[in-house]
Design goal:
With about 400 residues, the chain is of the alpha/beta class. The protein has helices at about 20-30, 40-65, 70-85, 105-115, 135-145, 150, 165-180, 200-205, 210-230, 255-260, 280-295, 310-325, 335, 365-380, 385; strands spanning about 5-10, 90-100, 120-125, 155-160, 190-195, 235-240, 265-270, 300-305. It is globular and about 60 Å long.
Length: about 400
């Protein structure tokens, strides 16, 4: 029986307050997070942003206990998935590869090689593909594979996205159904999907399929929810965590909450649809910031559906995905990371500021706003110290 390595891809996050600055540097040093006209600026600006803004991000992490739970939860998911696969007779070992914090992708690849697995199934913990989340991780694996002859010979099968997989859809619907049933009037409770946004240009100019997959996923989940409840519920899909001077996918979560309050909605079941783990954007942005906005808008019952974490239906769905990838046609890294032909990461043909929709990019929102002002001031010919608010 083949020994299978299952590589789980995720973003990563600072586990301690002192990790925040280095994490931010790694995040903004990636050209797929901030797209610049020349790569020479990437590391200096990453250092500048992480130095100036880490204190702001530290405040957010202190509000949720002092660090991100993402690594702990992802490793729990990996253990549960490994156990499920072995119970099914699959000789699988799971590995966690974080993009911007420990355990880094290089470390996971090293463990895979040391264990002598026969093949690898790459499973991003992003249900919906985006060029800047799954795509970035796939391209990192490509770089490592090209530089390592022994790794390049290892058969790899990639799962590009799985927003429509029955196990995932069912798991989401089951958790939402529990939230709806907890409401005083389940029949009229409003389901509110909040997905991490991306700049509108990612979709319209770069051809990112993220919005299309999010919208299709919402419809599938609502269809399954109706089956479970025996009635349909109104729902809204909105996008959170926008930053910078460009337009992002709409409607924006904060504005949609105000509108629903004005329309008289009283019971809201809030679903973090693009996140499979609790982290800064669920625990701080949704649970604290958006709850406050909703309450002020007149929404009296704010029910937040938990992230999937190690929910059994979800873990079984992940195991199904791995087995289907093994049995189906091979999807290699080149195919998984393929970008639309019009995508050009850098240098840009024009100034186009776009930042990714990674699950912990919230903690850099103020940093990117400051960076935007910095660039705008530089382009206008004003001094950088003034642009940074230091003069």
């Amino acid at each position: 029986m083949a020994r299978v390595g299952v590589l789980l891809l995720n973003l990563g996050g600072p586990e301690r307050i002192e990790d925040v600055g280095p994490f931010l540097y790694n995040l903004f040093a990636d050209p797929e997070i901030i797209r610049l006209p020349t790569p020479l600026l990437q590391k200096p600006l990453a250092w500048l942003i992480s130095t100036l803004r880490s204190s702001k991000s530290k405040e957010a992490y202190r509000a949720i206990g002092g660090g991100s739970p993402l690594r702990r939860i992802t490793e729990q998911q990996a253990r549960e998935l490994q156990s499920e696969l072995r119970q099914r007779g699959v000789q699988a070992t799971t590995y966690v590869a974080m993009r911007y914090w420990h355990p880094f992708t290089e470390s996971a690849v090293g463990d895979i090689k040391a264990d002598g697995v026969d093949e690898v199934v790459v499973l991003p913990l992003y249900p919906h593909f985006s060029i800047s989340t799954s795509g970035s991780s796939f391209r990192e694996l490509q770089r490592l594979r090209q530089a390592d002859p022994s790794f390049s010979r290892l058969p790899i099968r990639c799962i590009r996205s799985w927003y429509d997989h029955p196990g995932y859809v069912l798991a989401m619907a089951e958790l939402i159904a529990a939230g709806v049933r907890s409401c005083e009037d389940p029949g009229s409770a409003h389901v509110f999907f909040s997905a991490h946004g991306v700049p509108k240009s990612y979709v319209e100019e770069a051809g990112d399929p993220y919005q299309q997959e999010i919208e299709a996923c919402s419809r599938l989940v609502m269809g399954k929810l109706e089956e479970l409840l025996g009635h349909d519920n109104p729902y809204t899909l909105a996008y959170q965590s926008r930053v910078g001077p460009v337009e992002w996918l709409k409607p924006y979560t904060d504005e949609a909450l105000v509108r629903l309050g004005e329309e008289g909605v009283k019971e809201l079941v809030v679903v973090p649809i693009s996140f499979v783990s609790e982290h800064i954007e669920t625990l701080e942005e949704i649970d604290i910031e958006y709850r406050e906005i909703a309450t002020e808008a007149g929404i009296s019952n704010f029910v937040r559906v938990p992230a999937l974490d190690t929910y059994p239906t979800f873990i079984k769905g992940l195991a199904d995905l791995v087995q289907q990838a093994q049995a189906g046609p091979e999807v290699n890294l080149d195919q998984a990371a393929a970008l639309p032909t019009q995508v050009k990461l850098y240098p840009q043909d024009k100034w186009a500021w776009g930042w990714n929709n990674s699950s912990e990019v919230w903690n850099g929102r103020l940093a990117m706003l400051g960076f935007s002002a910095f660039l705008l001031e530089l382009l206008s010919g004003r001094g950088p110290l003034h642009a940074l608010g230091l003069l």
